[in-house]
Design goal:
Helices cover about 30% and strands about 30% of the residues. It is an alpha+beta fold. A five-stranded antiparallel beta sheet has the order 2-3-1-4-5, with helices on one face. It catalyses: (8S)-3',8-cyclo-7,8-dihydroguanosine 5'-triphosphate = cyclic pyranopterin phosphate + diphosphate.
């Protein structure tokens, strides 16, 4: 059985020591989906939500979340992100907002958690800004779509290819 790296020899939780790892370019892309009813979706699209421009606020929240991931996830290394890009795809038929977050850096550790945290918080921000209009908003599909770089190499989530 492979040793779990977040546990020391006594089974105590620890932050993994990455001192001996080589810094490499790394990139991760994550996704989250927010499902709205038709009325709320149209209000977001037409910027009619009373709290403001939902997608702009969600983008800023996602960026802030990605930058603060190590403050939220206990064993996550603080890192110097070089880029965070957040894009939204509006699905008019399904009344769904797909959130895509791309995080980049050159470091000794990966950037997957930052991309996932950014996508999650952008989705939660949309929820928060729309909850006065719709109570049954659903967030789903939070997942890593791809990662590049590092010792373990590249990864593509096969379920995201289509």
């Amino acid at each position: 059985m492979e040793k779990f790296s977040h546990l020391d020899e006594n089974g105590n939780a620890r932050m993994v020591d990455v001192s001996d790892k080589k810094a490499t370019d790394r990139r991760a892309v994550a996704k989250a989906c927010v499902h709205l009813n038709e009325k709320c979706y149209k209000m977001v699209k037409n910027q009619e939500i009373k709290k403001g421009d939902v997608l702009t606020v969600a983008k800023v929240a996602g960026i802030m979340a990605a930058k603060n991931t190590s403050n939220l996830i206990p064993m996550c290394h603080p890192i110097n992100l070089t880029s965070i890009e957040i894009d939204f795809k509006m699905d008019d038929n399904e009344h769904r907002i797909d959130i895509f977050v791309e995080a980049k850096l050159n470091a000794k550790t990966g950037v997957e958690m930052e991309a996932l945290t950014g996508a999650s918080l952008a989705a939660l921000t949309i929820y928060d800004m729309c909850k006065a209009v719709q109570k049954d908003i659903e967030i789903s599909g939070v997942k890593l779509l791809r990662k590049e770089g590092g010792k373990s190499g590249d990864y593509v989530n096969e379920s995201s290819i289509g």
